[in-house]
Amino acid sequence: MPAEELSDFEKQRLANIAERDQLLKKLKQEAQSSGLALPPPPRPTTKKPPTDSSRPKKKPVPRKPVVKDESLAPRRVSSRLRGLAADSEVAKRKADEQQDAMMEAERAKKVRKSDAFSFNEMVVSGQKLSGEGLIGVDVVTKGVAKPYERTFGDEDIQMTTDKDLKAAREEMSGLQLWEAWEPNRIKLTPERIYTMTFHPSETKPLIFAGDKLGHLGVLDASQEKPVSVKNEDDEDAEEDDPDPILTTLKPHTRTISSMTIHPAKPTHLYTASYDSSIREMDLEKTTSVEKYAPTSLADDLPLSGIDMAADDPNTIYWTSLDGAFGRHDMRAPPPSSTEVVESWQLSEKKIGGFSLYPTHPHYFVTASLDRTMKLWDLRNLSRDEPVPVGEHASRLSVSHAAFNSAGQVATSSYDDSLKIYDLATQGINTWSEGHDKTLSDEQMKPDTVVRHNCQTGRWVTILRPQWQQNPQSSIQRFCIGNMNRFIDIYSSAGDQLAQLSGEGITAVPAVSVFHPSKNWVVGGTASGKVCLWI
């Protein structure tokens, strides 16, 4: 009897078996060619299709569906088993070398450059602002607000009964956003702004900003916007609307954390960086030279702040992220490997900010990750065991401590508060050298605490208060960024004087600074853009 014709199901099953056998045979041949033979897999046996003559007479049993045996499917085989051992080692070695080269290149980008730089060696974009370089010869407690909701305005000013306070509020609230260009068009640095300062000149607002990657942006806000001109012959042509003239340099390889200009040397800008160096930029020659750094490039000393005494334009003071405080005379030659840098270990944790007392610069305050604000006397500072004159602990870390010329200190803290300490009332102006006075915990308590949201998160620069050093009135004031996209201005008594805002501000102006004497305020954002009120 002729064999029964195969069903479609059987044909497919046999085709699967043949394909599997062919794959196994190929894998075996590849393994044998490399000298490593795989154990032969069990060969499945196939039965001939049953015929009518061989079919049992009993009732046929229903055929079970065939389940594919995954164990017999082709398995991934290593390069070694496929005879590619040599190529794999070469590829792995090459990949490791490429990875090492990339890591070394990234590390090299962050190593400070100790060379002196000219303008052309630093410039990233923009142009010199004039033919003479970068400068010319003219040179209270409130609750947490809802997002973007004002907490201070005209109504608060009208309700003010104190004459001097009302005048200060009207004066500061009257500042207007610079109208020449919208804030979103004034991109001063490529990355997030970490620090800013004004040039002390009162003839024009000249602003400097340092960012996360070591860029330095310069803006002359005295420039006027060119009149837009449209080509009358071309109806479809748009009006010419140029951006402001900006200059972007790169004097550092890592974050610029702090900067200052001494009033007695207005042509020099000093910048401190996480790349462990302090550099001096000549604003007339547009050159930059290193003024302080560890003796070895292998030493990592990220600097968190710098300051200078008003009566000494040659000495610079600094703090570091590892809790050190130092002093350096910039007239001295670079220290050799055998010399000891003049520094003191004041904290086991990061010092986020510090400042000297302007009228008595042997006193200074530090703010630390160890949750304290401490007052120090440099004249009595022991190198082995430095002891502060007084300290105050907050519930969470203290971000910054700033002295004003009246002997008051303003701090910002992650416990969502601004604290103001009046050390003048504790007699700081009358203490003589060598005094053994130590302030008690009660004496170091803040005189005023203002509720203020300081939760900046990861992407916004930490909020720090900054005083106007020479206010043209009897009311001391400081500014600080507001997470609702404002800049708040407070008096030394904790009274809010203004809440600056304006059209086109789309990010938090976290870094805010006062001009030393003029009522000019500038804020910098995480996108490198600035907002200026004048």
TrEMBL record:
WD repeats, residue ranges: 363-380
GO MF, one example: DNA binding
Tagged with keyword Magnesium: no
Gene Ontology cellular-component terms listed: nucleus
Region: Disordered, residue numbers: 26-99, 223-249
Record field: transmembrane: none
Domain of life (superkingdom): Eukaryota
GO terms (BP aspect): DNA damage response; regulation of DNA damage checkpoint
Family matches, as SUPFAM superfamilies: WD40 repeat-like
Family stated for the protein in its record: Belongs to the WD repeat DDB2/WDR76 family.
Purpose of the protein: DNA-binding protein that binds to both single- and double-stranded DNA. Binds preferentially to UV-damaged DNA. May be involved in DNA-metabolic processes.
Protein name according to UniProt: DNA damage-binding protein CMR1
Organism for this UniProt entry: Aspergillus ruber (strain CBS 135680)
